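Dear colleague,

Following up on yesterday's call, I've attached the two folding results inline so they're easy to grep. Please treat them as preliminary; we haven't cross-checked anything against experimental data yet. The first protein's sequence and C-alpha cells come first.
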Amino acid sequence: MNHSQRFALVNSLLRFATTLSRGAIWVAGGLTLISALYITADVLIRRFSDSSLGGSDELSAYAFAISISWAFAFATLQRANIRIDALYQMLPTRLCALLDWVALVALGIFIAFMTYYASDVAMTSWTRNATANTAMGTPLWIPQFVWVAGLIWFCVVLAIMLLRASLALVTVDVVTLREIAGMRGTKEEAQEEAAAGRRNIEGDAA
C-alpha cells in the first residue's frame, strides 16, 4: 500500500467516524430532550396532584452522563473542545502544528485512562450486580455500559484522528494538521456563524 492509498484509507475512516459521531450526537440530544420533558411532566404532576412519575432525578442523571460521553467524539472532530490560546496565537505556524499534535496525544492519553477506569467501574457493577440506592433500584451496569460505550467510541475516533494528524505531521502538511487538531480561530468561527445565518435566512425565505 503506497502513501496515497494510506491517506485515502485514513481519510475514509475519518469521514466514517464523523458520520457516526454526527448520528450519535443527534441521539444524545434526543435523550437530553426526553429527559427534560420527563422532568417537566414530573414537576407539573407534582404541582397539580399528589402523585409523581418518580425517578426523574435518577433517570436524568443517567441521560446526562450518557449524552455527554457520546457527544465527546463529535465535539472533538469539530474542534469544539476548549484550549487556552493566549500564547498559541503568537507562535510560529509550524510550532503551533506540533503543539496541536501534542495536545491531541495528551487528550488521547487522558481519555484512555478515563475509559479504563470507567470500564472497571461498570464491570464491578456487573459482577456484583450492584443496584442504585433509590426506589427504582436500577441495575447500575445498564447505564454504565452505555456510558462506557460512548467513551470507547471516543477513543476509537481519537485514534483515527491521531493517525491522520501524525501522517500530516510527518509530511509537514500543516494545513491538514490544523484542520484536524488545531484550534478554531476567530475568523473561522465568524465564517461559520455567517454561513449559519445565511442558511437561517434562506430557510425563512422558503
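Below is the second protein, in the same order (sequence, then structure):
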Amino acid sequence: MILLDPAAHPVIGHRGNRAHAPENTLEALQEAVALGVDAVEFDVQVTADGHLVLMHDLTLDRTTDGRGALAPRTLAELRELSASARFRRFHDGADTWRGRTARIPTFDEVVESLPNTLPLIIELKTPAATAALEVAIARHGLQDRVIVAGFEAASTLPMRGGRVALGASTPDVARLLLPALLRRPVARPWFQAFCIPPVYRGIPVPIGGLVRGTRAHGVVTHIWTVNDERQAERLWAKGVNGMISDDPARILALRDRVFGGAATK
C-alpha cells in the first residue's frame, strides 16, 4: 500500500477536498478522488445507536446546523442536519454551497462510494468508536488499505498486533521527542506510521528527528495539514512521506514539479 511505502510521496485529501467542499462529506471525499489524490483522510465517531459516522468535532456546532454533542444522537437525528450549513470556501470565504445540502455520511456509505482500491487514513476521534470500526473494516475487507490513528492511546490499543496498520498516538509521539532532538536511536515502535502536525500547541515538532529515528524500523510519516507549497517542499526535504492537505490539487501540482508527478519513484 502506498501509504506504507517508505519511498512514496502520497498526497492525501484531508477530510476530502476540505478547502472547497464541506469536510467529511461524501461530496468532499469524491472531489478529492476526482483530483487524483493517492488517499483520503477522514474522522469517525459512533452514534448513540451504534452507527459509524464521519465527523471531526465531538460537537455539531462548527460544521452543521445542529447543536451539542454528537454521541447522544441517533443516526436518524443526524440525518436531519446539514453538514454544509456553515461551510465557506477557504481562500475567499465564499458561500459556494448556498442552495445545496450535504449530509453527515456513515462509514459504510463512504467506503461504498469510493474506489475499492483507494487507501484510507481513518482518525478515531473517541475510543467509543473503536469496536465498531474494527467490525466495519473486517466487513469491507479493508485491512490492507487503511491506516487507523487516534490521539488517545486507548483508541487504537485494542487493534494493536492485528492486520491493520496503526498510527502513533499523541503520548507515543511525546515519548520520542527527546530521542529525536538528541538524535538517539529508538527501539522498534509498535506503530507503523506517524500522522502528525508540524506544530503542536504552538511548539514545533522535530519532524526531521522523528523521521531519522524511526525510518530504519519502516515507520512512514504523513503530515497534516499542509496547504503551502514551500512548507511541503521543506517537509519532503526532511524525509517526510505524505502530505495531508485541505487543498490537495495545489500539493499534487507541486509534486508534479518536484517528483515528476509520481507518488513513487
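For the second protein, one point worth flagging: The chain has a mean pLDDT of 94.

Best wishes,
A.L.
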